[in-house]
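[Automated response] Your request has been received and processed.

Submitted sequence:
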Amino acid sequence: MALPQLATAKYELRLPSTGETVEYRPFLVKEEKILLTAQGTGETMDVLKAVEQIIDNCTFNKLQVKGLPMFDLEYVFIKLRSKSIGALVEVNVTAPDDGVTSVPVEINLEDIECIKEVGHDNNIKITDSVGIIFDYPRIDSVKFDSADGGEEAFNIMKSCVRQIYDAENVYEKTDMDDKELSDFLENMTHDQFEKVQEFFNTMPKVKLPVKVKNPKTGVEGEVVLEGMNSFF
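Generated structure:
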């Protein structure tokens, strides 16, 4: 005789990048095992791959998870975590007045939003006639395996290029030689590079401002938690 099938609730959320409505279920014991196994290795990429698999399972394999911007991935996982284990989470934050004291703070994962900075644009004009269209970093563009942080950041930037254009032509990433693209980016001036960096600095992020009172000094302040790792 077959065992009874356990019913699972279904919910909906909107992807921050597109506004698309996504149906999902909470993750189950089988997904918790995937996450715990990955966390046990201590490797960031193992955890990200586990998160990718869990999101794929819990959205009924209808999302192209590998193609999601990292902020979509983080937002979806936080919402999954909220419905699966509970919305209230205690995290430790550093008191802003002294920059040292660790303070436990209870947060509600349902309050977390994905915030897009005013004026943010993926079309970066590096000269009057030359510009770059960027895509957002995805899970397959974040490697965390380079000892050189500058080289890692450069490779992420390069992986996010979609198009380069000038007054007469549009050059698709798919038609570019890897060395040619590297040479183009490496020949930017400092000011041009800072314009590109602004795209990454202002791209959407999962954020939550929290009030913190330093128990040693009694001073109250605010800390903005950013990124998935800040909430667990």
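Summary generated for your ticket: Residues 123-202 form one domain. The mean pLDDT is 91.
If you did not submit this request, please reply to this message.
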